[in-house]
Amino acid sequence: MAMIPPLADGSFAHFFDATGQFLDNVSAIHILPLLGALVFQGLFLTVRTRSWYNGLRAAYPAESFPWRNIWAAEVSANGISSIIPAHAGAFVRLYLGKHTVKNSNYATVGSSFAVDLPFDMFVGVIFLIYGFTQGVFPKLPDLSKLNAFDLSFLAQHPRFAVFFVTLVPILLLALFAYLSVRVRDFWANVRQGITLLRDRNLYLRGAAAPQFLGLIFRLASIWLMLTAFNIDTSVNIVLTVLSVQIASSLIPLTPQGAGVQQALLISALAGVASTTAIAAYSVGQQLAVAVFNAAFGLVALAFVFKTTDWRSLIRAGKAEKAAEDASDEASVPYEHDNYGDDTWASKHPDIDSQTTLEYDRDIPEAPRDY
Q1: How far is residue 369 CA from its own chain's centroid?
Q2: Which pTM does this prediction carry?
Q3: Beta carbons within 10 angstroms of residue 19's beta carbon
Q4: 315 FRET partner, CA 20 to 30 A, in 144, 145, 170, 321?
């Protein structure tokens, strides 16, 4: 029996019908609220980059690098992920971040992405709870009735859904076990990347604060986008839309959760506006945000890094990371103060080797001028 069954019939046709409804109602869109929503979207993307920047500064306190490079790396990566599913832009972010910070490595730069996780997970859980308690999301048996090729596909084939949901954590656990045995130095670099998370005050000021401000900008963007598409606005409706966006991002099979977000919005906003208006809004706002993110990312890439060839950056990022992983695999396990030349210890000879192994005790304090 085939492991991957065909997609639900008619789901693609429904999506394109909604796209047609959006095109038919383009003339009814209010331009000023739409432009305002995109401005707040840009502010949301921009202010969040301070979190990653501060995480890298904490990981590499001896290095000096400009915020604009980190801003361009994250914004361009977000733009790529807006049009290509499965977070393809992460390789661009990793590559540009590594080449911005001197004496850095992919393990540390990659693990520094995690400084965003605590706040994002907390906010995500809060809004998912809000969505379920307010009846925003349909019950599990009703998911197969939604016209979303992601949700209907998984809901109509529960065995594959269970396989898909359990496969990812199993692979992550296997990778964790493999790397923990293979290269101890890899984990030292990973722990260096999350230095910011081990100082509560530094984390709250350097990561949580800009992320909270970004959340305010995101809510403002949603409010204005609803206004632009003639949907009644209220605090409850804005929170409902954000809950749907967070839920749809959990299934990265399509750019920005297209299909899932559309179906959930039609269900969640039923009674607020007509089905046609909601469908036009769901497609229109996704299209507007995707185009803006992509354009914003390309402009940032061209302005800071003097290139728009993001495909070559993805290839270069994959190739360099593979080369670094291969180099780690070829290395011999070292004892205490005999780490290799490409380790964090060799780049910081003023820190003794025992301190290098015990990151929790004597990590150099990161600059405090955030």
Answers
A1: 26
A2: 0.72
A3: 19
A4: 170
Matching residue, tokens 């008619």: 10
- Residue that the structure tokens 């590559």 belong to: 95
pLDDT tens-digit profile of 171-184?
A: 666 665 655 555 56
Q: Is 187 helix (H, G, I), strand (E, B) or coil?
A: helix
Cα–Cα distance, 110 to 115 (Å, whole number)? 10
Each residue of 230-285: pLDDT tens digit? 898 999 999 999 998 888 877 655 555 556 777 788 888 888 888 888 888 888 89
262 token code pair: 């559309």
Q: Whole-angstrom Cα distance, residue 287 to residue 14?
A: 16
Residue 79, H or E segment: helix 67-83
- Residue 250's nearest CA partner among 72, 27, 83, 87 is 87
User: Exposed (0-12), middle (13-18) or buried (19+): which is 158, by Cβ within 10 Å?
Assistant: exposed
Per the listing, tokens 């605590």 go with: 118
In this structure, the number of other CB atoms found within 10 A of the CB of residue 103 comes to: 13
In this prediction, residues 321-348 reach a mean pLDDT of 51
